[in-house]
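Attaching the record inline, Q. Sequence:
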Amino acid sequence: MEIIIQKELLEGEEMIETEIIKINPKAPEDQYLEKAADILRRGGLVAFPTETVYGLGASINNKEGLKRIFSVKGRPGDNPLITHLYTWEQLPEIALEVPERALVLAKKFWPGPLTLILPKKETIPPEVTAGLSTVAVRVPAHPVALEMLRKTKIPVAAPSANLSGRPSPTRGSHVITDLNGKIEMILDAGATGVGLESTVLDLTSPRPRILRPGGVTLEMLEEVFGEGSVEAPQFTNVGRPIAPGMKYRHYAPQAPLSLYSGSQDKLNKYLPEKVAEDLKAGKKIGILAYDEDRSYYELPGLHFFSLGKRSHPEEGAERLFYLLRLCDQVGVEYIYAIAPPRIGLGEAVYNRLWKASGGKVEEI
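Structure, as predicted:
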């Protein structure tokens, strides 16, 4: 265990001691989880690992703690939070009604990377739901998160534990970089598993619709409800978001990112020439591509970041946010990214790259 104080704070922020706990992800130490639960019950903020990304948690019973989430992250107030439970049996505490299809999904995919949008109970604070009549809820599949939630005994609202707009944290070190000195505790369990935020599924309309793709894919949901029964995600900018990740530019590295889509042959003919021109002009360039593309980008000075194999989209999902932060560390001035095949988990990777690019994609 170590305590570190962040030395530089944003104007108006108060420096606090952040207790950083290195915790065993497979067998988390009970005393640390008890301490985290106590902090949450008293209205403090705790960053904790889930199987998707790290979350920044506050008890839903403490409005001041909930407000601090928004101020610490610099998060817009109209962006709702996800409420985390330790069992699906807590759903009646949160949802005004629990339809049968919600129970079917909960029993199949929880604990796991699926968030359900349901009508909320009147007792849920507006800070959690951004004033909406619905609430986003899930049960995470990480042992640290589950045991902390069990000990807290109160549902915990948590967005990703990063500064708003930055790549989501998939390592404890990412959370420390963004939030050290701003919150009471960080539970550092190393790397997460899925690497992308949960799928968000709206169950308030007759036809379930995916608001944000994630680890539970469209294909997996259609296995439950039938082919064509689930509305696929629409990649458009929205007015008032009803789920996280819908409205604002997200997951963005410091350097501008351009997303390119097309056949592998066309991309690997067009992009190397474009990159070579930038390198010749003295620009520091990074490219996010696949193992199969590497031979086309063996250019002096180019930073190649591998998303793994095209046929294994889970590799790209696990690596993406880590690689975007690595681009910042290396100090690239511009990033080119090759779009993944948009099937299965590849759809979620595409979504995050699309958001990181500001919603722009160039077809080749």
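The longest helix spans residues 313-330. The mean pLDDT is 92.

More tomorrow.
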